[in-house]
Automatic annotation (TrEMBL):
Start and end residues of each Biopterin-dependent aromatic amino acid hydroxylase family profile domain: 1-295
Amino-acid positions noted as binding Fe cation in the UniProt annotation, renumbered to this chain: 162, 167, 208
Family named by the database record: Belongs to the biopterin-dependent aromatic amino acid hydroxylase family.
Origin superkingdom: Bacteria
Record keywords: Iron, Metal-binding, Monooxygenase, Oxidoreductase
CDD domains: arom_aa_hydroxylase
Name this polypeptide is given: Phenylalanine-4-hydroxylase
A Pfam family per the record: Biopterin_H
Source taxonomy: Bacteria, Bacillati, Actinomycetota, Actinomycetes, Streptosporangiales
Cofactor: Fe(2+)
């Protein structure tokens, strides 16, 4: 229901050096001053981070650890039913803690020996080219805050549940991690904004909201589906279309609701051939041809 590079609460640095996360009035934590103060402090950690240094630890309350434990437990049940085998293998390899929120430095320590990926803390909005580009180097921008405890199965913005349960488990797979890297290489290779948006839309409909046919049924591998308690129960009933690059790169989506159009790979090999092959070779000219063919 959201996109890393698009749907974050704005973050503003004040004249006195403090950091303020500007939550919308509709946000579940808007009226909770304790939660808002912690969000501000966590954003400040990310803004002060310097590449190559350990990621500063975020302080979480027992209530927030309980939210993580509850969501982790319920999602694990749904993953067994709906997630692809490759994703489930990643879950087993990574071994995330189920009873507490892991620190991003801890996630990096688990992930790097497996596929070379490390996490980078993000205070809020990360420009598209930066967010996707660093994937080529094995880095993934991630928030550190967790959703408000009043609605443990809902978040209006990507939180640590989405970033870690959704993405880190996928990044623990050698084959999925290779696709993330190829997406980053593509984002760096293209020059125009239209071409970059095309690359990002293909990412959206695959590594964020991708589905795949496996042993006669439709399963999910996209982090947006696999981190959403509600959406994971609904994706099989959506408009499922063939894995076509021109269609994915030009289809409009609404980040504020469940994705009603999804594109299905016939297998992991099919995903690697079509999408991996595209990201490995695409440039502005080839993307312009794809866009023209979709008209």
């Amino acid at each position: 229901m959201f996109e890393e590079a698009q749907y974050f609460a704005p973050v503003a640095a004040q004249e006195d050096g403090s950091v303020v996360v500007e939550l919308a009035a509709s946000h579940p934590g808007f009226a909770d001053q304790v939660y808002r103060a912690r969000r501000n402090a966590i954003a400040a950690l990310a803004l002060g981070y310097r590449l190559g240094t350990p990621i500063p630890a975020a302080e979480y309350t027992e209530q927030e650890h309980e939210v993580w434990a509850m969501v982790s437990r319920e999602l694990a049940i749904k993953h067994a039913k709906y997630a692809t085998a490759e994703y489930l293998d990643g879950v087993a390899r990574l071994g995330l803690p189920a009873e507490r929120i892991p620190q991003l430095e801890e996630v990096s320590g688990l992930l790097e020996p497996l596929t070379g990926f490390r996490y980078l803390p993000a205070a809020g909005l990360v420009p598209l080219r930066d967010f996707y580009g660093v994937l080529a180097d094995g880095f993934f921008h991630s928030t550190q805050y967790i959703r408000h405890h009043s609605v443990p199965f809902y978040t209006p913005e990507p939180d640590v549940v989405h970033e870690v349960i959704g993405h880190a488990n996928a990044l623990a797979s050698d084959r999925y991690a290779a696709l993330y890297r190829l997406a980053g290489q593509a984002a760096r290779r293209v020059e125009g904004e239209e071409a970059l948006e095309f690359v990002s839309k293909v990412f959206w409909f695959t590594l964020e909201f991708g589905v795949m046919r496996e042993q006669g049924e439709l399963r999910a591998y996209g982090a947006g589906i696999l981190s959403s308690y509600g959406e994971i129960e609904e994706f099989r009933g959506m408009d499922i279309r063939p894995l076509e690059l021109a269609a994915m790169g030009t289809t409009h989506y609404d980040i504020t609701k469940y994705q009603d159009v999804l594109f299905a790979a016939e297998s992991l090999e099919h995903l690697e051939d079509v999408v991996g092959g595209f990201w490995a070779t695409c440039d502005d000219d080839s993307i312009a041809r794809l866009m023209a063919s979709a008209v």
